Amino acid sequence: xxxxxxxxxxxxxxxxxxxxxxxxxxxxxxxxxxxxxxxxxxxxxxxxxxxxxxxxxxxxxxxxxxxxxxxxxxxxxxxxxxxxxxxxxxxxxxxxxxxxxxxxxxxxxxxxxxxxxxxxxxxxxxxxxxxxxxxxxxxxxxxxxxxxxxxxxxxxxxxxxxxxxxxxxxxxxxxxxxxxxxxxxxxxxxxxxxxxxxxxxxxxxxxxxxxxxxxxxxxxxxxxxxxxxxxxxxxxxxxxxxxxxxxxxxxxxxxxxxxxxxxxxxxxxxxxxxxxxxxxxxxxxxxxxxxxxxxxxxxxxxxxxxxxxxxxxxxxxxxxxxxxxxxxxxxxxxxxxxxxxxxxxxxx
Length: 348
Hints:
Shape: elongated
Mean pLDDT: 90
Low-confidence stretches: none
Oligomer: single chain
CATH superfamily of the largest domain: Vaccinia Virus protein VP39
Number of strands: 14
């Protein structure tokens, strides 16, 4: 699993909803669709939901990348209307409707921009956007305005199965209302509080009691994956240039050679076993690698080899030139040995 969330919140939720491909969520303060997203993992598996995001650039990204979701470019508060939104250009995730939080952000050296934004109540969103669907989890990240969002929410009418709120451990008024309505706090992960409704406590509660760990939950943080992808792209560029040079020296040129070199570089960057066998550029057994590329069976027994399938003719051509060159080198070596033997006889 790849965790896209800030504190692996999606890993904890995925424990509870193992195998689900048709769930539904509501994300208040969704930010953007990938980085620090609690919902990206679920969207990739077929879930849909409602993303509520007042920042225009983040909302536009959600519209592009989550066309199956309901994306709302509004804020959420205790009453409908318009509120001042403090946008933080250099740290978008810290943007807030809270004047107090904005003051704290500015004290840290960030600049804020004030904008007037439409706001709705969470009850209104559930009534008009959720309809009769079951909300598997509600996530709330509103930078200090939890009570404005959740303080008047009708927990008896709208009952999301799991609730995730970025908050301190203090039991505030909004949480007391939740507890009175049959929700139980299961976990504080250092940033977020997790709750489960009484109807689902037996089924979902046990999975929501401990924070995510890489050792036990076996996930990769998106930040690391992103850096590895960047490094792999750079390595592929170097490998492709080397193979293109190898092809050119063997008389194989043009767009087909460029595409074949790129495919071979891509596979080699993903297959450490191939690198261990033939080496990697600039010190690799090009003849052996080309013969392997010509003879592999594309399928489950050769992972990550699919990119090679459209370029076998190019590899065969380069390998054939390599064979002709190898025969010529062998013949020259033999002639050289014979010449040396004749010179030795003459010296005698």
